[in-house]
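May I ask for whichever protein you like with its backbone structure tokens?
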Amino acid sequence: MVTKPTIARIWRGRTRRDVANSYEPYLKAEGIPPLQQVALGVQLFREDREEETWFTTISYWPDIEAMTAFTKGDPIKVHHLDRDAEFLMELPERIEIHRILVDDQDLR
């Protein structure tokens, strides 16, 4: 039986445009693999704006308990990567937690 996600955990961070191409591979190598090992799914997005670049990571979880086990505590607390302070314009203070109300699988 396939477990469906009921929770999306969303992290956002922004860099200056001149460091975005360095931060992206770092985020892919250091931030994404730990999520891929335990979450039901992970997506990474990049939005290049005129002077800054936004990165958004969405991970999908079966429930709050699974997410809390991964974060070892408060699921909205941000666990910064070692080099985030070097790359990010400011360190995000929280994670967004959203209940999934509609999944495209429900529409098929």
Summary: The chain has one domain: 7-107. The chain has a mean pLDDT of 92.
